[in-house]
Amino acid sequence: QAQLVESGGGLVQAGDSLRLSCGTSGRGFSTYVLGWFRQAPGKKREFVAAINWRNDNTYYADSVMGRFTISRDNGKNTGYLQMKSLKPEDTAVYYCAFTMAYGTKKADDFGSWGPGTQVTVSS
Predict the structure, then answer these.
(1) What is the C-alpha to C-alpha distance for residues 51 and 29, in angstroms, rounded to an integer?
(2) Which among 52, 68, 92, 122 could disulfide-bond with 38, CB atoms 3.0 to 4.6 Å apart, if both were Cys?
């Protein structure tokens, strides 16, 4: 299973937008469901969004529905998380990971975790 690496995090103000990327140089990217999670200090890692391998079905956490958009480009072995109308409560380390189980929101069902990228939203 390919190892993933996230990028694109940073410090932004409330209401701003940010796009995260998730890439790999390994093989098999297009065969897995790709998911995004986040973890704030002192909190459990929580599901954010996921997309199937064909890039035509997605599902989201209620807290980001309508503000975040997940997508992927299998030709570039890269996934994306477009984040709009960011809020201070979106501050967290964001991770991407793979699963074979489309529809799951459980972190334990995902693997090949990247090291994460920090997103900080100031008020």
Answers:
(1) 12
(2) 92
Contact 48, 64 (CB under 8 A): yes
DSSP E strands, the chain: 5-7, 10-13, 18-23, 33-39, 46-51, 58-60, 68-73, 78-83, 92-99, 117-122
* Environment class of 25 (CB within 10 Å of its CB; exposed 0-12, middle 13-18, buried 19+): exposed
The 10s digit of each residue's pLDDT in 40-87 is: 999 999 999 999 988 889 999 999 999 999 999 999 999 999 999 999
How far apart, in whole angstroms, are the C-alpha atoms of residue 15 and residue 32? 32
Give the type of residue at 32: Y
